[in-house]
From TrEMBL, chains A, B:
<dbReference type="Pfam" id="PF13411">
    <property type="entry name" value="MerR_1"/>
</dbReference>
<dbReference type="GO" id="GO:0003677">
    <property type="term" value="F:DNA binding"/>
</dbReference>
<keyword id="KW-0804">Transcription</keyword>
<dbReference type="InterPro" id="IPR047057">
    <property type="entry name" value="MerR_fam"/>
</dbReference>
<dbReference type="InterPro" id="IPR012925">
    <property type="entry name" value="TipAS_dom"/>
</dbReference>
<protein>
    <submittedName>
        <fullName>DNA-binding transcriptional MerR regulator</fullName>
    </submittedName>
</protein>
<dbReference type="InterPro" id="IPR000551">
    <property type="entry name" value="MerR-type_HTH_dom"/>
</dbReference>
<dbReference type="GO" id="GO:0003700">
    <property type="term" value="F:DNA-binding transcription factor activity"/>
</dbReference>
<feature type="domain" description="HTH merR-type">
    <location>
        <begin position="5"/>
        <end position="74"/>
    </location>
</feature>
<feature type="coiled-coil region">
    <location>
        <begin position="83"/>
        <end position="110"/>
    </location>
</feature>
<dbReference type="Pfam" id="PF07739">
    <property type="entry name" value="TipAS"/>
</dbReference>
<dbReference type="InterPro" id="IPR009061">
    <property type="entry name" value="DNA-bd_dom_put_sf"/>
</dbReference>
<keyword id="KW-0238">DNA-binding</keyword>
<keyword id="KW-0805">Transcription regulation</keyword>
<keyword id="KW-0175">Coiled coil</keyword>
<dbReference type="InterPro" id="IPR036244">
    <property type="entry name" value="TipA-like_antibiotic-bd"/>
</dbReference>
<keyword id="KW-0010">Activator</keyword>
DNA sequence: CTTACACCTTTACGTTACGTTAATGTCAAG
DNA sequence: CTTGACATTAACGTAACGTAAAGGTGTAAG
């Protein structure tokens, strides 16, 4: 019953991997067979199985095989330190996922109209014509878009031009023509406030919370970020900071 | 100032990627230049930039470029649906990371001796000799291991054999020789209780909370899982369930 | 003995999203 | 004219296998 040896398929099945994996581990000197018989067959044993499952354990933790080999082969390896380092990288990953999920949620929310902030403002604060075709193509199947289109259409062409120009001026002021300005500067904050009023006047009613979300999305969505960044590199991030500051100080 | 066209380096810099990326996107028909001049230079324009940043937006969300192409090219694409699906996958990833972090923490805890549960029990509940060389190689630099080694060495060889045999018997009973048994069955629970006492008697003192953690680790670490699973497929998971049930009902 | 079938072997290309040379051409400035 | 910054294509490398392709081996059944 003991001194049992296994074929490649047997340990592969026991460990829940394919034979390809086992051969690959052989190839990269991660797990060598205990013997190669005359016919070329690889032979493994109990200790191979343990080692293999040890490998699987670390692989499950997303450690690259290279690192695993170090762990397996070097007796003086500082296990705790390695695991702690790996823990850190896992946490970084997690934080990133957290961020992505938030951005994603905001995007979805804005698309489905939750928080009664349509993609109206989202799409029409800038030059309308430039985005129209694309916007229709991509968001045309949401009812909010149709609705906002109608509202916008209710303005006369002259009005539309005026509104757009006004918006663009405010945006320029927000981004801050002089590169030395800080998001907290009085004139920047003044412009942010006016832009907030502007959106409220000509578009949807929105409160500070939604305003803040909007700003986050301007940065998150590159089509808008590009508009800000074209005015000044880092413009989008700057605007977000300015809006955040504004919202924090106007509760 | 308008009708501006960009070179490959310019848009690459504006989008924060390398020119290689831009060429690659050209190659896979994700983002084609608006024109290729006589000298072979690629030419891009404003809309290219927007499209590129749109791509970056989705890439940031970890969508494969293949999917991004679908999104970009197909006007009738159901955005919300796609994003929701992607959200799900991100959440799955997050849950997995959560699990990994917990396992990792437990492993680290056990190694550093937090919760005063040394890797003693962890390594010596089974056949000691089989693991010794490996265990020393991998955990030899932790003070707890040395300590537990000394304790174990204080037993006479006969005692050691008896203790091991006793443990193995209990393990066999826990895993449940008959496949029909459930983790909650009285005789299984009886064996779990005896094993708990056994560990307390011959090894470290441990409470139910630590006992539960130990069980989790038996499953998480394949070297132990293998021991249970060798007795019966799914044995490790079975033991964990049994121990969890035991701990839940013995507060 | 043959046949079937499951298993074993090596070789080698495909995958993803680029990074990294290598070898060469182009353009504007000094 | 040279220099330096830019452009081009071609091609190999990455991580961890999946997936044939082409062929050898072992065993059980007919």
């Amino acid at each position: 019953m003991s001194d049992s040896t296994y074929t490649i398929k047997q340990i592969a099945d026991m460990a829940g991997v394919t034979t390809r994996t086992i051969r690959y581990y052989d190839q990269i000197d991660l797990l060598k067979p205990v013997e190669i018989r005359a016919n070329g067959y690889r032979t493994y044993d109990q200790s191979s199985l343990l080692k293999l499952q040890q490998i699987m354990f670390f692989r499950e933790l997303d450690l690259p095989l290279e690192d695993i080999r170090s762990i397996i082969n070097r007796p003086d390896f500082d296990m705790v330190d390695a695991l702690n380092k790996h823990r850190l990288s896992l946490q970084t990953q997690q934080n990133r996922l957290q961020r992505l999920l938030r951005t994603l949620d905001q995007t979805i929310d804005s698309l489905t109209g939750t928080g009664r902030m349509g993609e109206k403002d989202y799409f029409e604060g800038f030059d309308h014509s430039e985005y129209e075709e694309e916007a229709r193509a991509r968001w045309g199947n949401t009812s909010q878009y149709v609705e906002s289109q109608q509202k916008w259409a209710s303005y006369s062409p002259q009005q539309q031009e005026d509104i757009k120009a006004q918006g663009n001026q405010l945006i320029s002021r927000m981004v801050g023509a002089d590169a030395g300005a800080a998001p907290e500067d009085a004139d920047i904050q003044q412009a942010v406030g006016e832009y907030f009023d502007y959106l409220n006047r000509y578009f949807y009613t929105l409160d500070l919370k939604i305003f803040r979300n909007l700003a986050d999305m301007w940065v998150a969505d590159p089509r808008f970020a590009a508009n800000y960044d074209r005015i000044r590199p880092g413009g989008a991030a700057f605007v977000r900071e300015a809006v955040h500051y504004y919202c924090n100080h106007h509760t």
